[in-house]
Amino acid sequence: MSSIGLNRKKNVKKGIQFCIMVAGISGTGRTTFLNTLCGQEVLTSAAAASFDPKEAHIDKGITIHPITVDLEEDGARISLTIVDTPGFGDNINNESCFSEIMGYLERQYDDILAEESRIKRNPRFRDNRVHVLLYFITPTGHGLRELDIELMKRLSSRVNIIPVIGKADSLTPTELAENKKLIMEDIYYYKIPIYDFPYEVEEDDEITIEENAELRAKLPFAIVASTEAFQINNRPTLARQYPWGYVEVDNPKHSDFGVLRSALLGTHLSDLKEITDDVLYERYRTERLSKGVETPLDGSLNAEELASQSFLLKEEKLRRDEQKLREIEQKVQQEITERRQQLLARENELRELEARFQREASLASHEDSTDSVIPSVSSLTDSSPTVA
């Protein structure tokens, strides 16, 4: 059995590791979204926590709360790590919140960096890098606030960011469309790098371009989440009930929840992981190692050990680059072989067409010669003597 087949079996057995972080001020629907995404109660609402009026004036800061659940999506097992950030944006001064989230993201990169430098690696090591940050924007109808802009700009160098509007059913369809427009205008104006479902017109196929263009047009995603099911059209449906009717979670006319879930856990899961590994982590690793050997990773490495790590990491990078070049070469060879087969098939078609034309021309020539012989025979018959 090939190593590729073995790796696939291992992935099926272990499950695909994927990590989502959510951030946003309290009341934007983060907890309900995560519980709906997982199909179970993985987090408890902050509203259910006890409140002490005597401590209302104290900034409690932020809490980084990771939790891992196992999901199954289209037959694939996903080991999903969810990182919630309760307390963000709820303080008078949120500077410490930015530092806490950035510190958490970079610590996961440091763990990978340290593991890669080991002579003997831990077979049970778990990659806890955050692959995507869902940032919940308050549905005010007035675009981004300064807090939103600052967080996304600071974290965009460490994680893929997808902006979403939580509790989107609090806005009318017209207000929601206008709010989406204002938010995207702010993102472009302040040059905030978000994950906008990138594609290359010259390289990607038409289906990929069309799918990504549709997803990009929906940014920021308007989310309505609910863990409560109602009987709608004789089937249980996750929805939110109002006096005038229901807002269905998976109905694309009511919410972008289904589209976002499909992108996160299906169509764009691999792309988010690849960008995290090949772009964001590589950038961080370069910055970390270029600071100099006087700054060890965990305070325990000396200059010689860090220099050795740098050498090993460069070797690893070279191996990765060589592997990518081999894959590109195989792809090019495959395309050449396919083109050659197409050309051979076209040549065979042309040969068959030419042979058919020759047969038809020969047949036409034979018919002409036959027609020219018949009159001469008749003329001989007419000129023969008549017997009395």
Structure explained in plain terms:
The protein has a domain at 8-44 and 61-290: P-loop containing nucleotide triphosphate hydrolases (Rossmann fold, 3-Layer(aba) Sandwich). It is 51% helix and 14% strand. It is built from nine helices and nine strands. A six-stranded mixed β-sheet has the order 2-3-1-4-5-6, with helices on both faces. The longest helix is centred in the last third of the chain and has 81 residues, at 303-383. It starts with a helix and ends in a 5-residue tail after the last helix.
Largest sheet: 6 strands, mixed
CATH topology of one domain: Rossmann fold
The CATH superfamily of one domain is identified as P-loop containing nucleotide triphosphate hydrolases
Name the strands of the widest sheet in spatial order.
2-3-1-4-5-6
Global outline: extended
CATH architecture label of one domain: 3-Layer(aba) Sandwich
Total DSSP E strands: 9
Q: What's the level 1 CATH class of one domain?
A: Alpha Beta
Unreliable spans:
1-11, 293-303
The rounded distance between the terminal residues' Cα atoms is 100 Å
Helix coverage percent of residues?
A: 40-55%
Query: What is the percentage of strand-forming residues?
Result: 5-15%
**What is the H-and-E element order?**
HEHEEHEHEHHEEEEHHH
Radius of gyration: 33 Å
Global mean pLDDT: 83
Number of helices: 9
List keywords for this structure.
9 strands, 9 helices, alpha/beta, Rossmann fold, six-stranded mixed sheet
What are the SSEs and their pairings?
Blueprint: H1 3-14, E1 16-23, H2 30-38, E2 65-73, E3 76-84, H3 95-116, E4 132-137, H4 146-155, E5 161-165, H5 173-189, H6 206-218, E6 221-222, E7 229-232, E8 235-242, E9 245-248, H7 257-267, H8 269-290, H9 303-383
Parallel strand pairs: 1-3, 1-4, 4-5, 5-6
Antiparallel strand pairs: 2-3, 7-8, 8-9
